[in-house]
Specification:
With 373 residues, the chain is an alpha+beta fold. It folds into 2 domains: 118 residues, Tumour Suppressor Smad4; 223 residues, no CATH class. 46% of the residues lie in helices and 13% in strands. The strands form 2 sheets. The chain has a 6-stranded antiparallel sheet, with no helix packed on it. The relative contact order is 0.11.
């Protein structure tokens, strides 16, 4: 039976590897071998031991990634002579049980400054033994539950991390922009622009961190305020909104239009927007709004994508209704301000929930979508 050796200091930690799939990461709820180290993601990689003793490994798209003998590594066979590094933690394989008094192997050139605590935990569900056709086959993502079953957890996602700080800041800025009088409305418009830039940056970070397997909100410090890059990103997202919702917004200018045309175009935009947003967030490519790309992707996971679209439709409908309620509050009373703050906070919260669901959709259907990112 092969064994996993985690090299730290002079003596490696040794973990026997039975045939099957072993998840390496820092989250005890998601990993069967837990590495408490800041450079290791919640679900960093899978190590697959075949019945014949061959070993494969696959990176889950973690932020730091994996290297094999110093080269970037995604998936493939792993031999005992090779060093697989997760973040800053180097690992090697032992192809036979160690003797009673093994000699300590030479420590790798890099020794992490932060100590790592190793725990072996039982997986939450039985781990299947994969049987790829060749050693080069990449193993599948082994332990993701069905997409609908993870949706309730998305409602708790904004409470895991700094989301409440983000919501308080955004609500405060919105209230300031709303009550500024006269010429100071220009300042309110600038505040609104900064909010839009930040929200788009936050949306992208939430999608990317969810796809990587992180289960907490990105830290506030991870959202970079590079205004040049954010302007470019804003231009892309403005184009995205125009492509998705422009027809529904411009059609009312034609007086003889059919009554059903505007709602139909709006429905098409709502169906088109989430997949295009997902593609933009993961690739920053204008190909993400290509109709062939969007329609092909929707056709590969239509039922799960329908859940994402329905949630967005409900969110937009609620926002429209609340907008009608508060549109005439030019100089709101304290009660109206409190109601407006509650409405805004709820809206930002539900937006984060929906973005989390969108990221989970890709994470659970990555193989179905087969995007070449």
């Amino acid at each position: 039976m092969p064994a996993l050796l985690i090299h730290l200091g002079d003596t490696p930690h040794r973990v026997p590897l039975a045939p099957g799939i072993h998840i390496l990461g820092s989250d005890p709820a998601a990993a069967s071998v837990v590495l408490d180290h800041p450079s290791v993601a919640d679900r960093h990689c899978a190590v697959i031991v075949q019945p014949d003793g061959r070993v494969l490994a696959r990176d889950f798209g973690s932020p730091v990634g994996c290297t094999l003998d110093g080269e970037p590594f995604t998936a493939g066979p792993w031999a005992p002579a090779q060093v697989l590094t997760l973040g800053d933690v180097p690992l090697t394989l032992e192809d036979a049980p160690a003797p009673a008094a093994p000699a300590a192997p030479a420590a790798p050139a890099f020794t992490p400054a932060t100590p790592v605590t190793l725990r072996k935990s039982a997986p939450s569900r039985p781990i299947p033994v994969p049987a790829p056709e060749s050693p080069d086959d990449a193993p599948p993502d082994p332990d993701l539950p069905p997409f609908p079953t993870v949706l309730p957890g998305a409602f708790g996602y904004p409470f895991r991390g700094d989301a409440w700080i983000v919501i308080v800041i955004l609500v405060g800025l919105e209230l300031v922009a709303r009550i500024l009088p006269g010429i100071l409305q220009i300042i309110g418009m600038l505040i609104g622009l900064v909010m839009v830039l930040y929200v788009f940056e936050l949306i992208r970070d939430v999608i990317q961190s969810t796809v990587r397997g992180d289960d907490a909100m990105p830290a506030l410090s991870s959202v970079a305020f590079d205004f040049a890059a954010m302007r470019e990103m804003l231009a892309r997202y403005v184009l995205l909104v125009i492509v998705c919702f422009g027809p529904a917004l411009f059609v009312p200018a034609f007086p003889n239009r059919p009554v059903w045309l505007t709602p139909a175009l709006l429905a098409l935009g709502v169906a088109y927007f989430p997949m295009a947003l997902l593609g933009f967030a993961l690739s920053d490519s204008f190909g993400a709004i290509n109709p062939l790309f969007i329609l092909r992707s929707i056709g590969r996971a239509p039922l799960a994508y329908g859940i994402v679209v329905l949630f967005l439709a409900a969110l937009m409908g609620s926002a429209y209704g609340m907008g009608l309620l508060t549109e005439n509050w030019r100089m709101p009373s304290p009660v109206q301000l409190a109601i407006g703050a509650l409405v805004s906070a709820t809206g930002f919260y539900l937006l984060l929930v929906w973005v989390r669901i969108l990221g989970l959709f890709y994470r659970h259907h990555e193989d179905d979508l087969a995007w070449n990112l």
